[in-house]
Specification:
This protein has 105 residues and is mainly β. The chain binds FE2/S2 (inorganic) cluster (FES). FE2/S2 (inorganic) cluster binds next to loops.
């Protein structure tokens, strides 16, 4: 069971931009693009590459290791060599504070 946790201020993450955070020993990437925030695991499903070090292009984040692209809105794997989606987490913004709720069982 996970609740929303405040992890940043809106102005902490440039638009477009991204930042890696750790919650409960889990690394996540907070993405700011087009005025909206999204959050996915900092883990590429191909071979564990750090997505937070990858290049952001619109709503796609490319793994820095072999280039698989993920949709930051859903965690969906868009291109090879990744075939499995990564985990997307819920984000909300209240009074300029950014909150994330981990998607855990
Ligand atoms: S580890 Fe991400 S594409 Fe290979």
């Amino acid at each position: 069971m996970s609740d929303f946790r405040k992890i940043a201020r809106v102005e902490d993450v440039p638009d477009p931009g991204k930042m890696v955070f750790e919650i409960d020993e889990r690394l996540i990437v907070l993405v700011h693009v087009g005025g909206d925030f999204f959050c996915i695991d900092d883990v590429c499903t191909h071979d564990g590459g750090p997505l937070g070090d990858g290049q952001l292009c619109d709503h796609q984040l490319a793994c820095p290791r072999h280039g698989a692209r993920f949709d930051v809105r859903s965690g969906k794997a868009l291109t090879m060599p990744a075939t499995e989606d990564t985990v997307a987490h819920q984000v909300k913004v209240v009074d300029g504070d950014v909150y994330v709720k981990l998607n855990v069982d």
